[in-house]
Amino acid sequence: MSTEIAEYHSIPPARRGLLIASKWLFQAAIVLVVAGLVIWLGLAVREALARKGIQFSFGYLGNVANFSLSEGVVPSFVGHWPDLEPFSPTHTNLQALLAGLWNSLKVALSAIVLCTMFGTLVGIGRLSTNWLVRNLCFGLVEAIRNTPLLIQIVFWYFAVVLRFPPANAASNWFGGLLASRSGVFFPGLAISERAGAASWGLLVAAVALVVACLVLRGLRLRLILLAAAISALMAAAFIGFPLGLDLPVATRFGARGGFAISPEMTALLLAIVVNSSAYVAEIVRGAIESLPKGQWEASASLGLSRSHTLRDIILPQVFRIVLPSLANRYISLTKDTSLGIAIGFPDLFNVYGTVSNQTGRNLEGVVIVMLTYLALSWIISACVNGINARVNGRRGR
Amino acid sequence: MTTVALRWVHRNLFAKPFDTALSLVVIPMLAWAVYAFAHWALIEAHWQVVGGSFKVLMTGIYPAGQLWRAWFSVATLCAMFGAGLGLSLRPGRAALTAVASVAILIAAALAAAIDVHSGMLTAACAALGIAAWIGTQRSAVDQRIVLSGLLAGVVAVFVVLSPPGFEVWGGLLLSVVLTIAVSILTLPFGILLALGRQSRITSLRVISTAYIETMRSVPLILVVYWIWIIVPLLAPDTSVPGLLRGMAGFALFFAAYVAEYVRSGLQAVPKGQIEAAKSLAMSSWTLNVDIVLPQALRVVVPSLVGQILDIFNGATLVFIIGLTDFLRAGQMILADPQNSGRTYEIYVFLFAVYLAIGGAITYASRRLEAHLARGSR
Asked: For residue A31, what is the nearest residue in chain B, using CA coordinates?
């Protein structure tokens, strides 16, 4: 059709050349204007900084930082073994930024796992047959989604975490969890000194058997694997178990032992998990409601109970639908960790602020931080797209 | 009556074993939470701290002698809000009664907690808003008048508020004015970006897409902070107030989001519309302005209203550039050692106000969505 029309209005070659040339000129003009704008911006900032005696270069990254962070680790080497050591003022600016990135990632990754779990639960709760549960979930989701994240963060920090008892009088919750205003202490795993190579080998074998049991199919094979895993564990325990539980204890001078997270991280994590759970709940609820009603009816007519239907019929389909929306949520969540600056959590943005205040190098710093966040967004969407392709690709087969 | 109630309870709370178990866990917990909160709110809490610091919460450090400027802005904003509401939703009897009773309640609370003067002024502002709501008809003429009136209103608020200096703006007034100004600024920029992303000209498309995607993957706080830092470097001789720099940062950031909403609207316009306009030999300007955009924007109005909530919530981030918004004003009050024990009172009040405003915006967005869906059927 279109070719016919083109033949009708055949444009003389000379004029066509002019048209194409003018089109290219137009494109080139736009590119030039925008590139000129960006370059002018960069040059103007550089010049302004040069007037203050600061040259554009990334050399400052190698200089000694001369400030301390309340938490953060940097990669280092002990002999040939890579190791992590706490950040100290003698480390470089680059190591400070890395420590900040590590802190951001720490919060973001834990929040991604936790908010997916809680969000799914709340999303299912919003469709519960129980009136009270349904409306409670609705109220919580709306209250969280309609208020700023920042007020939630400062509320959790100033009104909840800092109101915990001091560490020496900390309350011991279930399973040895210790909550105090100087941080939350979880029971940690400690490596026992007495264990020999044999018990380590048995432990590794037990873990491998459990993994095999989860991956492989067939009920009898699974039962045999499980039995073997349990007997390996028991044998390991008999000759001296290699791992011990390190319970935190409240002492007169604070808490000791276990695995501790700082009050700032506790508050930020709580706020982000609760906030994102509300959004994930809405995503999950929307996905469940978007499934054809026939799915529920068919499984009900097969005599499946509601919980069975949910677990075996509905949720597997829901996870295919929600993946793209979840990816967007995870990206927003990662960006939200930058609000930690309001309560003094040393995340990437906070450390960037400190470094550029100390060195006056905003231009270089913002380039680094912007590229890091871009990379994080791309990595998250690439991961979720990969999972999406795997999950939804199977359906096509 | 009791049988009906019992049947309702049976059907909604104890229908199945699992529901019964859930109810048995949730009801005592909820009852305890409600009791604990009510006991605290009615008996233990010292709400005087909110009344005593109301001026700071609402206007920050705005000079007390100049408060008439703030009152003028509140009245203008109420009228603008009422007129805007009148354009989209007709006032029903129930809605009017609800709004009026809430306004009377707030005015009475203010009269009791602060002074009769502010209570009466609040009532007058609310009455102005309701009058504007009733007075605005859903006609093309009114639409034109109201839209230009909204712009004039924003300009008037800025002109009246600015004489004491931008740096003394604060409190809830700052949050609201910032939100409105940014919402208006993002619209033209966002529309241009969306058109750019849809354009046939490759370079324009690539540049718009790059801008949108970059802005969408960096945190708002970074953009706001960086614009705040960079403007004095670019214009060393003039001093641009922090508020305007912050506003520029917000507008640059949220324009990318507006562009994505508008793009979804552009995609919803039937292709036949564009083809028909082209066959009538319309220029691409007329085509976009008279045919495509009115239909596209109509679809995205609910999302754009929802976006206002994002901007309002994001406005709390102005603490990073040293401005005192509503949340920051609350924290300033708590920084006073005299009020150090009043953490919960202040936060509960802030949370309640944020929730009330956010809930109203979300409600409006949903009503608009339902309204537009009905119109296009």
From this structure: B203
What was the ipTM of the complex prediction?
0.89
Distance between CA atoms of residues B223 and B226, nearest Å: 5
Minimal Cβ distance to A374: which of B214, B314, B334: B214
Q: Which residue, chain included where needed, has tokens 């009900």? A: A300
Tens-level pLDDT at each residue, chain B (377 residues): 788 888 888 888 887 888 888 888 888 999 999 999 999 988 888 888 888 888 888 888 888 888 888 888 989 998 888 888 887 777 778 888 888 898 888 888 888 887 888 888 888 888 888 888 888 877 778 878 888 888 899 899 888 888 888 888 888 999 999 999 999 999 999 999 999 998 888 888 889 999 999 999 999 999 999 898 888 888 777 788 889 999 999 999 999 999 999 999 998 888 899 899 989 988 888 888 888 888 888 888 888 988 999 999 999 999 999 888 999 999 988 888 888 888 889 999 999 999 999 998 898 888 888 877 765 54
Chain B residue with minimal CA distance to A329? Answer: B217
Query: Cα distance from A159 to chain B (closest Cα, Å)?
Result: 7
C-alpha pair distances (Å), B223 with each of A335, B230, B254: 12, 10, 10
Mark yes or no for CB contact B201/A30 under 8 Å.
yes
All residues at 6 or more sequence positions from A97 whose CB lies less than 8 Å from its CB, including other chains: A61, A348, A351, A352, A355, A368
For chain A, give the number of residues. Answer: 397
Which residues of chain A are within 8 Å of residue B355 when distances are taken between CB atoms?
Answer: 143, 146-147
Question: Shortest Cα distance from A97 to chain B (angstroms)?
Answer: 15
When CB atoms are compared, the residue of B22, B320, B351 closest to A151 is: B351
* Residues of A with Cβ-Cβ distance to B327 under 8 angstroms: 148, 150-151, 154
